[in-house]
Amino acid sequence: MSLDSGRFVIVGNGAAGTTAAEHIKKNAPGATVTLIAGEPYPLYNRVALPIFLRGRVQEKNVMMRTREVEEKRGVDMRLDTWVEALCSSERVVRTGDGEILPYDRLLIATGGTPRPLGVPGDHLHGVYQFQTLDDTKALIERILESRTAVALGGSYIGYELAEAFSHRGLHTTWIMRGDRFLRRLLDVEGGHVVDLLARDRGVEVIYNDWADEIVSNNGVPSSVRTTNGREVDADMVGYGIGLCYYTELARQAGLEVNKAILTDQHLRTANPDIYAAGDVAEFYDTVIDRHNQMGTWDNAVSHGRLVAQNMLGANLTYTEVPTYVTTMFGSRLSVLGLTPEQHPELQREVQYNFDTRKYRALFFYQGRLVGAVIIGVLKGRRKIEEIIRSREPVEDRRALFDLLGPVDAQEKLEE
Ligand SMILES: Cc1cc2nc3c(=O)[nH]c(=O)nc-3n(C[C@H](O)[C@H](O)[C@H](O)COP(=O)(O)OP(=O)(O)OC[C@H]3O[C@@H](n4cnc5c(N)ncnc54)[C@H](O)[C@@H]3O)c2cc1C
């Protein structure tokens, strides 16, 4: 079989799937590339959903592709189509419409769906997850008729919701189970810097507590009752408590699934015709010599690019340093490489200043720099990435902070 004229089926048209589809078609114009999208939209920018939610950009600014662009590129895109079954012995997938699509190479780039909140009242109109464009539109509609909001969750999505609610002028309460934001990543001081940034924005933050019930008034939320007995006013509630990855197709093919789908460093599963990429791939990361899984846009795009070449017969190894960069109540948060979230025993060197709201932690493993988290300006970030990638031992750990500049200088950060 010549892969140049082979049949490639890609399930999921997020950053990983779309990038892979386009790269396959570009490198092998004779190939048939079918890109199956569970959602009704061509690729849109998930990372831009928070600024759409804040009202800083419009829906059209979030869209990244059109049907026409994909057609021109020769990608056969099926919108609003769910792949329900995979039969790896027959090398076919079946869609919800009953269509059978044969493949020579299959890519599973299915991402994940938010974990349900699971408390009484979570089904009310006015309680939202935040993962898709449709979620964002529903949130915006409700924001426009609300005065008070509660954001639930001590991770990135909980933060994005709290930021957007307060930016839109809602009286905002942010509730998390732990004693600080990103408690497995930040230490107490890092958590305090985020707390200060949130309070600067007028967000009330409640730690070590959780929603016990969302109290309803005529079918919409009126308050959140917490396990510690607080009653917090809420015309609407948004939550983010992690993703469940769409691994069902891999399970049907008998592939190994941990939290997500296990692959080697080439993003290939144990079945040589099936690959996984993006959020749903738990790939062997040669930078840190262990399996790793990253929920970041950059990672999904880089996976898409690399897996396209490997699906066409190359044997490239994934060596990117994973990064996650986001705003943080008018500041910036950047997470690079391996952190205590994946590996709690890393050694940590920290530098911070509460007045300037800056915080940096560098993470070391066996004498090497393996990761970092930075709140504040991102100067020197690329250099840090280079050092992580180089895998060279680091003699003078504190000297690395000089690359990032002083933490004591007050700076106006752009939003
Ligand atoms: C609100 C928000 C803010 C974020 N902010 C940042 C940020 O600031 N920085 C950052 O780096 N990352 C951020 N991320 C994470 C980043 O967006 C993701 O890591 C990235 O988009 C993952 O891309 P993906 O292609 O792997 O999966 P997804 O984008 O999740 O795409 C997978 C697609 O596959 C579809 N699908 C699943 N199963 C099937 C099936 N059986 N049949 C058909 N289709 C199927 C899904 O419906 C989905 O559309 C954010 C995410 C969200 C939700």
Written overview of the protein:
The chain has 415 residues and is α/β, with parallel strands linked by helices. The protein has 3 domains: 3-113 and 243-311, FAD/NAD(P)-binding domain, CATH 3.50.50; 127-239, FAD/NAD(P)-binding domain (3-Layer(bba) Sandwich), CATH 3.50.50.60; 323-404, FAD/NAD-linked reductase, C-terminal dimerisation domain (Enolase-like, domain 1, 2-Layer Sandwich), CATH 3.30.390. Helices cover 24% and strands 29% of the residues. It has helices at residues 15-27, 49-54, 59-62, 67-72, 133-143, 156-167, 188-200, 248-252, 297-311, 381-390, 399-404; strands spanning 7-11, 32-36, 75-78, 83-87, 92-95, 100-102, 105-108, 112-114, 127-128, 148-152, 171-175, 204-206, 211-217, 220-226, 231-233, 236-239, 243-245, 261-262, 274-276, 281-285, 290-292, 323-328, 331-337, 347-353, 358-365, 368-375. Strands 3-2-1-7-19 form a 5-stranded parallel beta sheet. The protein has a 5-stranded parallel beta sheet with strand order 9-16-10-11-12. The mean pLDDT is 94. Bound molecules: flavin-adenine dinucleotide. Flavin-adenine dinucleotide binds at residues 11-12, 14-17, 36-39, 46-47, 49-50, 82-83, 109-111, 130-131, 157, 160, 246, 278-279, 295-298, 300, 324-326.
Bound molecules: flavin-adenine dinucleotide
Mean pLDDT: 94
User: Strand order of the main beta sheet, please?
Assistant: 3-2-1-7-19
Q: What is the second-level CATH architecture of the largest domain?
A: 3-Layer(bba) Sandwich
User: How far is the first residue's CA from the last residue's CA?
Assistant: 52 Å
The helical percent reads 10-25%
Q: Looking at the structure, what is the overall shape?
A: globular
Number of strands: 26
Assembly type? single chain
User: Counting H and I runs of at least 4 residues, what is the number of helices?
Assistant: 11
CATH topology of the largest domain: FAD/NAD(P)-binding domain
Class inferred from helices and paired strands: alpha/beta
Question: What kind of sheet is the major sheet?
Answer: 5 strands, parallel
Extract low-pLDDT stretches. none
Strand percentage lies at 25-35%
Radius of gyration: 22 Å
CATH level-1 class of the largest domain: Alpha Beta
Number of domains: 3
